[in-house]
Design a protein that fits this description.
The protein is of the alpha+beta class. The chain has one domain: Alpha-Beta Plaits (2-Layer Sandwich). Helix content is about 20%, strand content about 35%. The chain is built from three helices and four strands. The protein has a four-stranded antiparallel sheet with strand order 2-3-1-4. Helix 1 packs antiparallel against helix 3. It is elongated, with a radius of gyration of 16 Å.
């Protein structure tokens, strides 16, 4: 039998926060803090010395932007993150959904995530 896989991302919004000082970060702690704040599943997908990017599931862009200061304050509770005066959510982008009958062709990317 052939090994077929389908990668599905449902109702996901990507958030990027800038204006941070990040050193010695515990990713699981940040995910737990933000998950508790938003009452939603959160996964950290990228960290630099000044930014953090995360996937948040089941929350609309408007609701995230409405609570921007609260989310930033919650992020700052994690050990290893310090806020600057310029800390802000610089990107909130809802991932587009597709009709299962019209999945777009996927070229490139990780071999494990190519459409089979």
């Amino acid at each position: 039998m052939e090994d077929n896989k389908i990668i599905v991302q449902v109702d996901k919004t990507v958030i990027k926060i800038e204006g941070l000082s990040i050193k010695g970060l515990n990713l699981q702690e940040v995910e737990r803090i933000i998950s508790n704040k938003l009452n939603s599943l959160v996964r950290i997908i990228g960290v630099t010395g000044k930014t953090i990017e995360m996937d948040v599931y089941g929350i609309e862009e408007e609701d995230i932007l409405k609570d921007e200061r609260g989310i930033i304050k919650a992020v700052s509770l994690a050990e290893g993150i310090t806020l600057s005066d310029l800390a802000q959510i610089s990107r909130v982008k809802k991932i587009k959904s597709f009709d299962i009958d019209h999945i777009p062709e996927h070229n490139g990317g990780c071999r494990g995530e190519r459409w089979l």
